[in-house]
Each structure stands twice: as C-alpha cells, then as structure tokens.
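Intended use. Records like the one below are meant for learning the mapping from a protein sequence to its folded structure. Do not use them to infer anything beyond what is encoded.
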Amino acid sequence: MPDRPKLWTLRASALRKARRALRQANPEGLHDTRVALRRIGATAAALRKEKVSRQSKTLVRRLSERRQLEVDRELLGRVAAAGLLSREAAAGLDARWDALLRSGEREAARVADGRKIRRLAKALERLSKSPQSRVLTKLEQSWRDARKALASPPDGKDDRELHRYRIAVKRARYLAEDLVARGVADLEEEIARTKAAQTALGQWNDVRLFRERLERTRERAERTGAVSLSAEIGRLLLVLEGTSASARKEAVRASGQFSNVIPLVVRTA
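Structure written out for the chain above:
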C-alpha cells in the first residue's frame, strides 16, 4: 500500500480549518466544525481512543442547538416564501428565535476558543506523531460492526429509533471513508448508498425538529397572549404533517436498502 497520511493527521487538519472558519464567523464554519468533530469521534471510537471520542461528542452537543436553529430559520424562510405563513408571522417567529440565535453564537464562540477544543486539537497532534498499530484491522472490524447494525432498518413508527438509525448510517459512512483514506478499494458504491440514506434521514430529522420548535413557540405565544401568532403556527403545523409524513416515508425507504446488502471483503488499492 502506498504511503498515506495518518488518519489523525487528516482529522487534525480538518479540525484546524473548521475551527478557524468558526472563529471568523464563516457561514460554513459551524457546519464544518461539527462534521470534523463527528468524524473525529467515529475514528476515535474505532481505534479505541475513548477519551478523544468523548471529547468530540461533548463539543458536538454544545454546537447542536445553534446548528439546528440555523436549519429552522432556513425552513421558516421556505414556508413563508411558499405562502404557508404570513410575512408578519414569519417576522414574529424570527424575532422570537433571535435571542436563541445570539445565545448560540456566544456558545459557538466559547467552543471555538475554549480549553476543551484546544485540548482535543493537542491530542490529535500527539496521535498524528505516534505509531499506530493494526489501524486497518481495527477500522475494518468497526466498519463491519457499524454496517451490520444497518441490516435491521426501523419501520419508522418510533422517532427515537429512526433517529438512532440516522446516527448509525452516518457512522458507517465515516468509517467507510476512513477505510478509503487508508487505501481500501471498492467502497465507492457503499459510501454513495450511505450518503443517500443519510440525506433522506437528515431531511426527515430537520422537519421533525422544525415542527418541535414551532410547537414550543406556539405554546409560548399562547401563554403570552399572542393569539393570532399561535393560530397561524397551529395552521402551519397541520400543513407540515403531510410534509413530515412524506419525509418519514422516504427516510424509511432509504433505510431499507441495507437489509439485503452483504458488506464487501475489503481490499487495498
């Protein structure tokens, strides 16, 4: 196998770039940082680096609310543009969520400059310089375990089960891409399959969480006497039931493609 960069070198480099973008308030900085951290977590778990895995997961969770708020505001713009919500109601929702956004921005800034992410970056630098034994063997076994977990897709009746499956698909994809980075061939179709399923599951999850935020906002509007806003949100939630059902159906369909696919015997290029 030709000499290739260590996975830890790739993970450290990706985190540096993403963190720099986050600190500079680059629009993609938050997304890139969360992806970099999730990839670190998947690699670390596969290579038995439990502390690094825990550190990355903790940081991802701290950034999750801000990321989801960005998604929700994008979906808010779409429903308003489609005429499903009045301009006044959309502006009212955006204003109510603005305080949450400012809080999320402060948390993202704390993460970008915090001690925990600096410690993680230093750990990755140390790992990139230290010898690693049986990397390919560990990665392959972890990928096979992750891939096996996809063979029993959910029926879509339980949100938590479908959400867990979404995370499992993402992990299987990241590990397959780790194997490719280490020179394993013939995984392109597998990666494309998991990426497509991840997209479908992600779209369902975005609509689910958007509806949950709308419901919480509707309840607050009722408590504060914003009757017209509460009524508009209620009508929107009814419309979104069909969108949610359609997204769920597509997510379940995409998940079902793994049940009859046997993982390849990996080989290096």
